[in-house]
Every structure is written in C-alpha cells, then in structure tokens.
C-alpha cells in the first residue's frame, strides 16, 4: 500500500512528498521551505539513514519504521512555535492509539496498549520510548518555517538509547508505516487546529497533561552537568516543565534529559 494522506488532510490542502529512502525528512522539509514552498506538506519515508533527534543524537529508521516531517509556514514568534511540539506529540499518540486498537481488534484481542507523552517531545508505550520528535524552525520570506519531525518505531527499535525503546511489533501490534501515517495526517489536522497558532495552547496543555508520563512522580533532569531533582508538578503556559524541589520551590526546566522513578533516585545516571 502506498503512502496517502487521510481524507481531512487532503481536503485541507496538505501536500505529500514520499521518499523510498531519505537521509532526513526534516532536512528535506526545511530545504523545500528555503526553495519557496509555503503550503503545508508532509515528507515521509520508511527508511531514514541520517535523521537527528534532540542534542544532535542520531535517529535512524530502518525500513518499515515511519520517519515523517510536516512543514507549516506560520506568522508566529519562535517562542510560540516551540509549543507546537506538544500538539505534535498528542497527534502521534492519538494515531498510535487508533491503529493499535484496530490491530488488536483484528487479531481478536481486547486489551488496549498504554501510551503516554513524555516531556518534552517523546511518546512512551508501557514506559518505553516508541516515538521521538524534533521541532525545528527557520525564518523564510513570508513567515517562520516550522518542521515537526516525528519518528516512530513500527517494526524495530534502537537498543542504545538513554530511555529503553520499543516498537509496535515488539508489542504484538502489526501495522504498516503507511497505515500509521494516514492516521497521523488526520490526527495532525485535529491537534494543529486546536493549537491554532498558539492561541489554543491552553487546551493543548490540558490534553497533554491528561496523557503525561510521570506527572506527580519523582523526576531527575540532567541539563549539561547539572541535575535537578524533585516532583514533576506540571508544565507552564510556555511548555516548561515545573519541578517541585525538596525545598518546595517550583523550578522551571526548559531543556534536559528526563528520568522518572528509580532512575531519578539514582541521580539520572
């Protein structure tokens, strides 16, 4: 089955560029914006060879996984564009719940999988990482080109990640990257609409917190050489994680590697 947009995404005028293999769908999307593309567009492949995650970590998608990037050219400030990452996490988490539920029903099962969003931009399945996301932005003529790169472990998961990873296949869910993408493109229309160029971030924040991993639990964040420990209290109106320290102070976190539970008690080592 070839890649195809969902009906709502096609009706909203989204483009679709499909690669048999790509170095990085984010790079392809940003290059398209630099060359004058202004309409929203998806860039997808089932095999990515030179993708990047946060902190320039490699994100390689072996054939059968889904590497996808959506380009939106917006008239918003970069600080507002940064909150779009939360809508992207909700979109892929919703798509995963949908396709996994359908796959379980087809197989005669009845139990739904447990997905959760992890600050700032991951999705977990049973506590293991199944999605990584990288949001990038660049000023172009006519606005800010924002690219949300979403990498999903469909048939295989890496073994050398700071957070243990898992694939849909590992979880007993047999779906194709193409089917997942169709669901994602539909879900993106919904959550991008709720986000509404940042004006709807209060609603996105509420929905994100309902699905958040580790909320109210011990957490340790490594940022550079510093480690901040406490309780994951909430996220604020800009999307920063707020950690309540042992002294009762709310510490805003803008970036870092997040560890929950027993790992947190060991100082995020």
TrEMBL record:
It is an enzyme of class 6 (ligase). Its EC number is 6.3.4.15. PROSITE patterns: BPL_LPL_CATALYTIC (PS51733). InterPro entries: aa-tRNA-synth_II/BPL/LPL, Biotin_CoA_COase_ligase, BPL_C, BPL_LPL_catalytic, Transcriptional_repressor_C. Keywords: ATP-binding, Biotin, Ligase, Nucleotide-binding. Coiled coil: none annotated. One of its GO terms (molecular function) is biotin--[biotin carboxyl-carrier protein] ligase activity. It catalyses: biotin + L-lysyl-[protein] + ATP = N(6)-biotinyl-L-lysyl-[protein] + AMP + diphosphate + H(+). Residues 1-196 form the BPL/LPL catalytic domain. CDD domains: BPL (cd16442). It comes from the Bacteria. Transmembrane segments: none annotated. PANTHER family: BIOTIN PROTEIN LIGASE, BIOTIN--PROTEIN LIGASE. This is biotin--[biotin carboxyl-carrier protein] ligase.
């Amino acid at each position: 089955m070839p890649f195809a947009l969902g009906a709502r995404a096609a009706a909203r005028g989204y483009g679709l560029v499909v690669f048999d293999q790509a170095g990085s769908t984010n790079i392809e999307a940003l290059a398209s914006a630099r060359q004058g593309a202004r309409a929203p567009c998806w860039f997808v492949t089932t095999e990515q060879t030179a993708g990047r995650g946060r902190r320039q970590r490699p994100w390689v998608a072996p054939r059968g996984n889904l590497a996808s990037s959506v380009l939106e050219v917006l008239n918003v400030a970069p600080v507002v564009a940064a909150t779009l990452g939360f809508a992207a996490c909700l979109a892929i988490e919703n798509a995963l719940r949908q396709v996994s539920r359908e796959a379980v029903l087809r197989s005669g099962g009845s139990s739904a999988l447990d997905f959760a969003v992890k600050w700032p931009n991951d999705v977990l399945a049973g506590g293991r990482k199944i999605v990584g996301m990288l949001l990038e932005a660049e000023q172009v003529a006519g606005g800010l080109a924002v690219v949300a790169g979403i990498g999903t472990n469909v048939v295989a998961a890496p073994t050398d990640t700071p957070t243990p990873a898992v694939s849909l296949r590992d979880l007993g869910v047999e779906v194709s990257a193409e089917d997942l993408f169709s669901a994602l493109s539909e879900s993106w229309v919904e959550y991008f609409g709720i986000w509404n160029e940042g004006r709807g971030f209060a609603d996105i924040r509420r929905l994100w917190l309902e699905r958040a991993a580790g909320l109210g639990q011990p957490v340790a964040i490594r940022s550079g050489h510093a480690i901040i420990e406490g309780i994951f209290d909430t996220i604020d109106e800009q999307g920063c994680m707020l950690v309540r320290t042992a002294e009762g102070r709310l510490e805003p976190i803008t970036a870092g590697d997040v560890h929950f539970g027993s790992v947190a008690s060991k100082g995020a080592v």
